[in-house]
Design brief:
The chain is α/β, with parallel strands linked by helices and about 250 residues long. It is about 40% helix and about 15% strand.
């Protein structure tokens, strides 16, 4: 067989090889999940490293935005835009709570009942478009008591997500519990390494320093993303087979 014929046969084999179907994973949430402007680094949303753990047929579309609650994600048209873009078989990971639960921020605050109603709407609309909704409790804040035990920082709102997921038979990733377990493993002082904790002069983006116990740095975001991936492996085998590397 001549070399040109062999080359054509090889090309045909590649052309007709079975490839996994393309799919998209949309992320809807707040600043703990969102992509960051370079001026915010080393602040990192966990959705950023999450995007790199998938095979080439998976696209992670991060629509999370800083400062958004379920209410403002709806009122600003962010949810409508996501729904316009998602297709049949796409996944939508939904994680809110940090801003919903802040009564001092009147522009974004939602009561627990409103929060649940908005999440139920999200789930219903994803399913109506033949997508797959996934609910996540909000990731925990770095908050330890005097005995060095991580405190629960989203009790009512996380409980509401858990209850809704059970009633609606939606996959639940309990990011609140998982992240608090992570912080506990590092301890009260060691867990500073996971957050935007900077001394004055340590980073040019924060010349005066930063003490933030809500937003992750690159290490914290990656470890939280790996916790989410581990739970995907546990609960969603059809999606887990598309994960190409994860060391958790």
């Amino acid at each position: 067989m001549s070399r040109p014929v062999i080359s054509i046969c090889i090309l045909l084999c590649f052309a007709f090889s079975v490839r996994p179907p393309r799919l998209r994973i949309f992320l809807a949430g707040d600043s703990t999940m969102s992509e960051k402007d370079r001026r915010a680094y080393p602040e990192t949303g966990w959705g950023m490293p999450f995007a790199h753990f998938w095979d080439e047929g998976v696209e992670v579309v991060n629509r999370a935005r800083n400062g958004r609650s379920t209410r403002t994600f709806l009122s600003e048209g962010l949810w409508a835009g996501l729904m316009a873009d998602m297709g049949v078989g796409d996944y939508v990971f939904i994680q809110f709570g940090h801003n919903d639960e802040s009564p001092e921020k009147a522009d974004r605050y939602t009561t627990v009942d409103e929060y649940v109603a908005n999440l139920r709407r999200f789930v219903g609309e994803v399913r109506a478009r033949k997508g797959v909704p996934v609910l996540l409790t909000p990731v925990g804040r770095r908050r330890f008591d005097s005995n060095g035990v991580v405190e629960e920082s989203h009790a009512r709102y996380s409980a509401a997500v858990r209850s809704l997921a059970e009633r609606e038979a939606v996959v639940l990733i309990d990011a609140d519990s998982l992240s608090r377990r992570l912080y506990q493993s590092f301890g009260a002082e060691g867990s500073r390494m996971l957050f935007l904790q900077l001394s004055p002069g340590e980073h040019p983006n924060y010349p005066s320093g930063k003490s933030d116990n809500t937003h992750f740095n690159e290490l914290g975001a990656r470890l939280v993303a790996q916790l989410v991936l581990a739970d995907i492996r546990r609960q969603m085998p059809e999606l887990a087979q598309r994960v190409v590397h994860s060391d958790r």
